[in-house]
Amino acid sequence: MALTGLEIFKLLPKTNCKKCGMPTCLAFAMQLAQKRAKLEDCPEVSEEAKQALAAAAAPPMRKVVFGSGDNQVEIGQETVMFRHEEKFYSPTVVAVTVSDKLTGEDLKKRIEVVNSLQFERVGTKIGVSAVAVVNDSGDANSFASVAETVKAASSLAMILVSDEPSAMEAAVGKVKDVVPLIASAKADTAAEMAKIAKENGCPLAAKAESLEALSDLTEKIKAEGVEDIVLSLEGLGLREQLYNLSRMRALSLKKAFRPLGHPTISFVSDGDANQQAAMAAALICKYSGIVVLDAAEPYALLPLLTVVMNIFTDPQKPVQVEPKVYPIGEPGENAPLMFTTNFSLTYYTVESDVEASRVPSYILVVDTEGTSVLTAYSGDKLNEKTVADAMAKHNVEGLVKHRKLIIPGYVAVMSGKLEEASKWEVMVGPRESSMLPKYLQEVWK
Question: What pLDDT shows up at residue 36?
């Protein structure tokens, strides 16, 4: 049970030394109770107090890590219900299944398809993070064999999906060095599955049909010595899953209810690829830490991965590109030069439209702290001085000889002052980036 701020205060040294960054020990205690500070921030706290404060200081949701090397993934350790309160920390892991009924070329092709589900969006690489090997055959040897094949052919993190302890033990024995997630333990198999997880150093998923049964099951698994647990709701429709996932999140974060203070996994297998993607997107929003799909079609996975990217981007730190001059095509000294801001979505939209024009060009990216053109201009992060300084910093005079700069139409009002500041001729471009191809082909001279 989490301690209140006053209960925490009684255990602190009460010296008001300010070494924690707070003006008083009481202020620090209140921040600690609200999970906005860490116990290690107090250098004076005693060992007895550390033990007593462990429950209050521990994250409300445990972090779980599986996989190995560069493809290791982590889920959990979230601290808020809504992104605007702070931010979300662990992006939802998207996984695609590989059935152990597949053999030979069919198995090889399925693994290749899952491996290929990697994309690039606004300069950021996104993709499937895990492969889920499913014991559809019910045979332990087939399950172990396919798991071993997947391990050899894919570097993605692995999830082993079987309710049978004997099959799970056989498969884990082949792939334990890549630290798979074991899914799943039920009430009647908890002890056996927990033993496999503990002996092989793997996290374990617990599966039940209700929150009450799930909280009892996690306590049972913890009693067996396994702390890294992932929660799974079984036999519920999408509406019930979303409702219960939200309840679990609220109970773990708001009430510090430890039995449910773990990340979650959801399995999506009903319907076609479009239906699975839609259901998975809803589960990502509320609040599944892992979603496992049978669908492997790129047209379904790309929008789903985009959802993950958008939700787990820190709203206070927009995705940015490096401020510099970007050549599009093979521009020469007579190529057009234009500028935009370093907000990724803005830059890549402009880049795409310039490429579509087939006119080799230079794009000067001005540092506006990741804000769009109008936002930056209204906040005075984009003005004649910032643009002129960027032109000088990146030596645009050495790139072109015409001394003409194309500016976005939405900031045409700054053209006069920019001409004075830069001593360049300013050409007002179109308001919408989509009009750049026509502008470059017909207006630029």
Answer: 79
H/E segment holding residue 409: none
Task: Give the start-end residues of each E strand in 77-203.
Answer: 93-99, 118-121, 124-127, 130-134, 157-161, 181-185
Q: Map tokens 């040897």 to a residue.
A: 141
Class of domain 63-311: alpha beta
The C-alpha R_g of the chain, in whole angstroms, comes to 27
Phi, psi at 396, each rounded to 5°: -70, -20
Q: Sign of dihedral through CA atoms 353, 354, 355, 359?
A: positive
Closest CA to 229 of 65, 54, 88: 65
Look at residue 33 in the predicted model and tell me its pLDDT.
79
Contact 367, 393 (CB under 8 A): no
Strand-pair category, 337-341 with 118-121: unpaired
Q: 16 near 24, Cβ under 8 Å?
A: yes
Looking at the chain, the domain(s) classified CATH 1.10.15.40 span: 5-57
Sequence-distant (6+) residues with CB within 8 A of 214 are 206, 207, 208, 231, 233, 259, 260
Q: Are 200 and 176 in contact (CB under 8 A)?
A: yes
pTM of the prediction?
A: 0.75
* Backbone phi and psi for residue 29, each to the nearest 5 degrees, phi listed first: -60, -40
Residue 414 per-residue DSSP state = G
Question: From CA 82, how far away is CA 99, in angstroms rounded?
Answer: 36
Element (H, E) at 78: none
Which residues on adjacent β-strands are paired with residue 425?
A: 404
Q: Is 337 helix (H, G, I), strand (E, B) or coil?
A: strand
CATH class of 325-442: alpha beta
pLDDT-flagged residues of the chain (< 70): 1-3, 54-58, 445
Displacement of CA 163 from its chain's centroid (Å): 29
Would you tell me which CATH number, out of the four given (3.30.980.40, 1.10.15.40, 3.40.640.10, 1.20.1250.20), belongs to the domain 5-57? 1.10.15.40
> Where does the chain hold its CATH 3.20.20.20 domain(s)?
63-311
Q: Which helix (H) or strand (E) holds 428?
A: strand 425-428
SS3 10: helix
- What's the CA gap between 368 and 385, in Å, rounded? 12
Cα 223 to Cα 227: distance, rounded to the nearest angstrom = 9
